[in-house]
Amino acid sequence: MSNPKRLIIFDTTLRDGEQSPGASMTKEEKVRIAKALEKMRVDVIEAGFPVASQGDFDAVQAVAEQIKDSTVCGLSRALDSDIDRAGEALKKAASGRIHTFIATSPIHMERKLRMTPDQVVEQAVRAVRRARNHTDDVEFSAEDAGRSELDFLCRVFEAVIKAGARTLNVPDTVGYNLPHQFGETIRQLRERIPNADQAVFSVHCHNDLGLATANSLSAVINGARQVECTINGLGERAGNAALEEVVMAVTTRQDVFDCKTGLDTTQIVNCSRLVSNITGFAVQPNKAIVGANAFAHESGIHQDGVLKHRETYEIMSAEDVGWKQNRMVLGKHSGRNAFRARLTELGIVFDTEEELNDAFYRFKELADKKHEIFDDDLQALATDVSMATDNERIKLVSLKVCSETGETPRADLVLAVDGAEEPGAAIGSGPVDAVFKAAESIINSGAQLLLFSVNSITSGTDAQGEVTVRLEKGGRIVNGQGADTDIVIAAVKAYLNACNKILGPAERAHPQTGDV
Ligand code: KIV
Ligand code: ZN
Fold first, then answer.
1. Is the minimum distance from the CB of 141 to ligand 1 under 6 angstroms?
2. Mapping DSSP to helix (H, G, I), strand (E, B) and coil, where does residue 330 land?
């Protein structure tokens, strides 16, 4: 059986995280994040929901092929077709897991599934058996366990363990539970299920009441040995438990927890920045562990204390979670080999030599504008290259913006739409407004702008600005990103990136809305 002193960290950034509106990722982006998670020594990486679309299948397959040190997992409903598709996507994994689920709460069974409890048990058992035909490593989730009846949960879990499930996941799907209550649920399940010792208990908490981390930790205190979480707490609605919070709480409070994770915590900040850069979901400055202010001591009293003795005001060190590792790496005179070597260290591998050439060219252009190129600049650059190779229909050819005191800003730009160049011009209340209107005069996307945000990637006035644009059309939400030392150019890149997505292929299936 598994080691009771070890807490398994199951990262679902690429699956539940991707369910955040606008956070969808390409295959290349998922592989980049998966490599960063592997480098951090995450135990299990849930890479997606293979039956959702061909794109999702390809992404799970690519992650399964390239990740060697972490288990790669694919989600499936308790349906033969879902399970077989997940099995197929994971075929080449060094270690592959199928995660199958069905809802067990009265409200989900009656209103969503329209199934009786007996039918749910039967379907759960059938799904686990089917999954065992593909792999020995099968996880079963009782969706909405947080609002399910304890007796029924015991019955379902006992049956799926007999059918071959090795991990039993207890999701608080709607973030309804309170820590003392959720911990008690885990304790009772472990006590009452006769074959409980044959499986690892896992939890998956959503953050609707801001309690996802607290609930997960309470479960660990009561014997859960796997926590499902995401980088930066990304995920459906208010998100999932944040990996960095769970891991650092367990690591810092070893006086309370009787288990440890196997993670290299110095990789946490890198992973956080990568996920934020790729998804366009900025990290709030006061976010625990990974927020820009998490280790900043503003008040004089605190600074004085920290200088005299760090532990007066700090319970962890910034270095332990990877702050201050964003050292200056390359400059204008750095050659191709140094560039490639640093990318490899960061886990960035391009599929083709052409992409590497493109990246190197962009790096030289950036180094001309900016003396010091930091790791975060390289991550943004890699995102730019993968977006450019992502069959973008609309590309920026040129842009001229006039902004002068007392005058109305004006933008003139040329876009290439499906290869044909088209000019556009507009005035606006500011340069960004003018540029977006000029672009829209050509694209006619009809999308509504939900969010426009600018962040500085590194410090200094020569830093690249990283812009996120969120657009909505017909209920579909997408995020676009762009980075440049000129923030107006970064803004138009982000706008075009979002337009390319919104005009792209239709949505894929959502795992938790379909019928079983
Ligand atoms: O929140 C949830 O219940 C899920 C399951 C699919 C595990 O994401
Ligand atoms: Zn979830």
1. yes
2. strand
The pLDDT score that the predictor gives to residue 244 is: 98
- Measured from the Cα of 171, ligand 1's closest atom is 3
The answer to whether 186 and 222 have CB atoms below 8 angstroms apart is yes
Q: What is the DSSP letter of 339?
A: H
Q: Is 140 in the pocket of ligand 1 (CB under 6 A)?
A: no
How far, in Å, CA of 355 to CA of 357, rounded?
A: 5
Q: Which of 141, 228, 240 to mutate to test the pocket of ligand 1 (most atoms within 8 A of CB)?
A: 141
pTM over 0.70? The answer is: yes
CA 310 to CA 435: how far, in whole Å? 48
For residues 138, 510, 240 and 152, what is the CA-based torsion angle, rounded to 10 degrees? Answer: -50
Domains and CATH numbers, the chain: 8-287 (3.20.20.70), 294-322 (no CATH), 336-387 (no CATH), 391-503 (3.30.160.270)
Q: How confident is the model at residue 346 (pLDDT cuts 50, 70, 90)?
A: confident
Q: Is the pLDDT of residue 451 over 60?
A: yes
Is there an atom of ligand 1 within 6 Å of 143 CB?
A: yes
Q: Which helix (H) or strand (E) holds 32?
A: helix 27-39
Q: What is the pLDDT of residues 146-176, one digit of tens each?
A: 999 999 999 999 999 999 999 999 999 999 9
Q: In the block, which residue shows the tokens 């002193």?
A: 5
Whether 240 contacts 215, CB under 8 Å: no
Q: Cα–Cα distance between 104 and 168 in angstroms, integer?
A: 13
Which two structure tokens, joined as six digits, stand for 341? 């070597």
- Dist CA 57 CA 31 (whole Å): 13
267-278 pLDDT, tens digit per residue, is 999 999 999 999
Count of CA atoms in the C-beta half-sphere (13 A) of 284: 5
* Among 54, 149, 38, residue whose Cα is nearest residue 103: 149
